[in-house]
Amino acid sequence: MISNRRVPYRRGVRRPSAPVTYALMTLCCLIFLIGPASGLNPSYGTGDELLAAQRAYFRHWGVVPAELFGGSPRAALTPATALFVHGSWVHLLGNMLFFYVFGMMTEERMGRVQFTLFYLGCGYLALLGYACANSGSGQSLVGASGAISAVLGAFLFLFPRARVTSLLPFLFFLPLRFPAWLVLPFWAALQWLAAGRATQGPGVAYLAHLVGFALGLLFAWARFGPATRVKAAPAPAPEGENQP
């Protein structure tokens, strides 16, 4: 038997306590709203002026692989700052949906301090891994995708039997429930296929997703081990088709 503290949310059981997840989501949303990508801050102007401000903003706070390994202390911090910057409303909302679905249970299982360090550390390394593989690229990379992918990897190890509600486009977006051990490896396989077809330039950093997912899975395995894996009951987890 396991204590209620480690039992995932279900009908009649309280939701997991996840203040770090909520705080990180709130911070990402606030930074996006006051930045140029939201289009809501009039200080950045409109039209071409706004586009130029967005490019400068992403270059300053995002990861630019060609600059990262130049020895600049500021550039070395960008894999951390980039985790809180998003390029569009779709980018932000897609990431926050995945984080909300999988972050709460993972945070409660790990604990607040460990989860915070896990999220920031894996996110940093995921973006660093992408930069290493694209060291000559001058394209800026932003977003929490690498860190959230690590959360997905840890969730897969900790709660493999938790049921995830998925919307499948080839089934007319019918909401169907599948266990995490089926949904998340399928998601990772899609990232792998997409990364193989990706070209250098603007787009989704699928390699960062893969690095983050692998780091999260390895961390959960090393930290908790198979003996402490939680046997999760079915949990509501709405998942869209947008990739983190």
From TrEMBL:
Superkingdom of origin organism: Bacteria
Keywords (A to Z) from UniProt: Cell inner membrane, Cell membrane, Hydrolase, Membrane, Protease, Transmembrane, Transmembrane helix
Keyword Transmembrane: yes
Residues of the Peptidase S54 rhomboid domain: 80-224
One BP annotation, GO: proteolysis
SUPFAM superfamilies: Rhomboid-like (SSF144091)
MF terms (GO), sorted A to Z: peptidase activity
Membrane topology of the entry: Multi-pass membrane protein
Transmembrane regions: 20-40, 83-103, 115-133, 139-159, 171-192, 204-222
InterPro entries for this protein: Peptidase_S54_rhomboid_dom, Rhomboid-like_sf
Subcellular location: Membrane
Protein name (Swiss-Prot/TrEMBL): Rhomboid family intramembrane serine protease
Organism: Streptomyces pharetrae CZA14
